[in-house]
Amino acid sequence: TGFVFQTLQMDVNKLNITLLRMFRQGVAAALGLLPQQVHINRLIGKKNCVELFVSPVNRKPGISDALPSEEVLRSLNINILHQSLSQFGITEVSPEKNVLQGQREADKIWSKEGFYAVVIFLSIFVILVTCLMVLYRLKEKIQLSLRQEKEKKQEIHLSPLPLQTSQSEYKTTNSMVQPEQAPKVVNVVVDPQGQCVPELKPPLPASPSPFRMKPVGLQERRGSNVSLTLDMSSLGSVEPFVSVPTPREKVAMEYLQSAGRVLTRQQLRETVACSHLLQTEFMEIPMNFVDPKEIDIPSHGTKNRYKTILPNPLSRVYLKPKNPSDSLSTYINANYIRGYGGKEKAFIATQGPMINTVNDFWQMVWQEDSPVIVMITKLKEKNE
Hints:
Blueprint: E1 3-7, H1 17-31, E2 38-44, E3 49-54, H2 69-74, H3 78-84, E4 90-94, H4 104-154, E5 185-190, E6 196-201, H5 218-221, H6 247-258, H7 265-273, H8 275-283, E7 334-337, E8 347-350, H9 358-368
Antiparallel strand pairs: 1-3, 1-4, 2-3, 5-6, 7-8
Helix pairs in contact: 1-3
C-alpha cells in the first residue's frame, strides 16, 4: 500500500517542506493523480528513501485507505517521474513489503554479515560443547580413581589363625553347614554404669599374611554364602547346630541383647574417616546362630533365602495372619533392631524378598508403617 523512492544525489534528511511538496507533485504527475492523493508517510534516513502511499479519489475523511502497491506501479510513468523529479535522483521504486525500498547493496552486505555471525555462533557453540564433554570425562575419571582408592583403603590385612590339632579331621562335604571355627575367649567386665561389656580376645596370629583379603560379609561370617536349594523332604525338620547352649553362647546371647555403644561426635567423625574401625568392630560381634527348633513353625524353611541365616526368636517380626490356624503366614525372616539411645524397634533387618515372600515383605512394611526402605546389598551378586 506504499512506495519508497530512494534518492542517491540528495540526502533525505535535507528535504524541507518545499522539496517534499515538489516531490509529492512530481509523483502525482507520474501517476496522473491529484497531489492530494499522494501521501508521504515517513523519511528513512538509513536507507535514504521516502515511504509514501496513494489513496483513492473517493477517500473518506479520517480513514487511511490506500491503493495496492502493484496497482500503483502499473499506473506509474517512469519517464514523467524522472523528468519531474530529476533533481532528486530517484534510482529505484520497489513495492517490497508495501514499501518502496532501495539500497539492495546494503541488504547484500547484511546477508553476508548475518552469515558470518551464524558461522561464528555455531563455532562457539561447538567449542563449548566439546569443552563440556572433556570436563565431564575428566570428572568421571577422577571419581573412578577416588572410588578405587576408597576400596583399597577398605581392604584389611588378615593373619592366618593357628590350627588346633584334634584327633578327628574335618572332611570337605557339600553340606550347607560349615565346621564351627575356634571359639574366642569372652571376658565379661562390669563397667561403673552396671552394664556388662564383654572383652573379646582373638587367638594370637601366627605370622603376617603375605596376601590381602577384602572384608568378610555377613553371609560368610554366618557360615555360608550359597543360595538356598530347597529340599522339600527336610523342610521344617532341620537338625539344630547345638543341642544344649554352652556358657560361652549364653554370655554371647546376653551381650547381643544388652550391648550398646553411643558414639560422641568426635568418635562418629573418626569412624567415618576410618571405615576399617567399623569393620573391625563388626568382626568382634559374637555369632548370632539360631537353633531351627526354636522356630516352631512347620515348613518355615521355604521362606528363608539361606539355610543358616534364621531370625532370632526373641526379636522376630510377627505378621498378622489372615487365617489364625495358618502359623506359616505369620513367619518372615526379619528382626527388630534397637535404635539410638536404646529405642526399641527403631529398625527392621530382613532378607531380600524372594518370589514367594514378596507379599510378606510388603505386608510387613504396611503393618509396621515403615517410612523408609534401605537396600544395603548389591542388585546382583554372583549371577543372582
